[in-house]
Amino acid sequence: MLVIVAMRTKAQAQRVAELTGGKIILKDNKPTCKVSLSGDFEQYREDVESISVLFKLYDKAGKPVPSGWTLTGATFEVEWPKDSPINSHFGARRFAYNWALATVKSDMDAKKKDANYVSTQWTLEALRKRWNQEKDAVAPWWASNSKECYASGIADLVQALSNWSQSKKGKRKGKRVGFPKFASKRKDPGRVRFTTGTMRFEDDRRTIVLPSIGALRSKENTRRVQRHLVKNNARLLNCTLSERWGRLFVSCQLAIRDKIASPTNKAPSKPTIRAGVDLGLRSFATVTDSNEDRIVFPNPAPLRAAIAELKRTQRQLSRRIPGSHGYEQAKTKLNRLYRKTTYMRRENVHQVTRYLVDTYGEVKIEDLNIAAMKRSMGRRAFRRSVSDAGLGAFRPTLTYKAQRAKVKVVVVDRFFPSSQLHHGCTGRLVGAKLAKRLTCDTCHAEVDRDDNASLNIRDWSDVTRGLVESTALFVPRPLVGTGDSSDDGLTHHLERADKSS
Ligand SMILES: [Zn+2]
């Protein structure tokens, strides 16, 4: 038996080869990050993990094999310590980000004037090296903050530059990314990421220790992370300290052993049942399963109330004079409401997705293009309600939970007009743009928009492309034989929005 372990760096691969007696794989006679090992990987596991748990495994054929580790994260709100250097750290990160951006820009200008000019590479290593050469001149105070601040700011800029260039080359999905802009204190929320140094979750399950910041008291019990760390079932990879709504948070990235991250004892209660989920604004989700049972998850009443209050407070704020007592009061209230609604939306998404993966063997959802939805929906109030509903977080949350529970998730084609076809009939539904009830133009039945859409999603199958094994009873007429709905006259609002961008 042969396994290939891919490390993150060549130095790590070198050490793995020394410890295990494996061979570094060469490419064009140069060493790579990959090491080939013979025999069972488990006999080398301890050695490899002593170097890093961020490795990938491949079998002889080059097929990826689970490494035994899952990446995950956790966030804890912590108390603002008195007389702490936190704000200074946030400022230092922003300074380094702006310094790196200015350096890159002046390099670009110099290159324009003189083609022989040698620019600093857009990598963390190169820019950090240059920072270390220049820091005494540009920031004589640098020693009063952790060096991680400067690394964190430079790393963020390198990422932003890479996003921009990938987007320019058309290699990046989604909205076009612009060239990075200078960060201002007002627009750039304070944050700094620690990747090295002492990061610790103390045994009291309250204290989180960060390098150069020291101990921070969590407002919530840290058990869910600490218990894995203490049993050596998880590794702390990095911690980010950040500010939001005037509060302080520590988010950490962890690698957790697979058996801990996804215990296999939890199977869905109806493994043979398939469900279609229609996400919407009136009700958060409408679920119809292959037993013809339907569950509607409304937007929670407290969330609706908080959103109404949020809108009222936003109006209040706009009428008050900046700097006045009343203005500050409204702003504090607004911050509190933002926090509240964010938490409630997140909770709602978690509850619905948890229900789905605990119940069904297969879940079908629509491929919602949230950005296009916002653009196409015209009215400002409606655009806001798209954001309000927190639909964007639904699919990623469902996907990771389903992976762990081994539930199948099928994403329905973006151009499938689920709300325009009458389910089980060949007719087309007509009605006002956002009307709850629609009428079929063929059989003249009146149906609920969300109920009908969830049925269509449940029974959708892309026969022409063979992506989904078909268990569907119904294949919508306009899709048969074409596999493309763009010329069938049923212009879906999402599709229209997509083309205009
Ligand atoms: Zn009909």
Characterization of this structure:
This protein has 501 residues and is of the alpha+beta class. The chain has three domains: 2-67, 2-Layer Sandwich (Alpha-Beta Plaits); 70-261, no CATH class; 270-500, no CATH class. The chain is 40% helix and 23% strand. The protein is built from 14 helices and 20 strands. The strands form five sheets. A five-stranded antiparallel beta sheet has the order 2-3-1-4-5, covered by helices on one side. It has a five-stranded mixed beta sheet with strand order 15-14-13-16-17. β19 (437-440) and β20 form a beta hairpin. It starts with a strand and ends with a helix. The chain binds zinc ion. Zinc ion (ZN) is lined by residues 422, 425, 427, 440, 442-443, 445.
Short descriptors:
3 domains, 5-stranded mixed sheet, Alpha-Beta Plaits, single chain, 14 helices, globular, 5-stranded antiparallel sheet, disordered C terminus, binds zinc ion
Cofactors, ions and other ligands in the entry: zinc ion
* Poorly predicted segments: 462-501
Strand content: 15-25%
Number of strands: 20
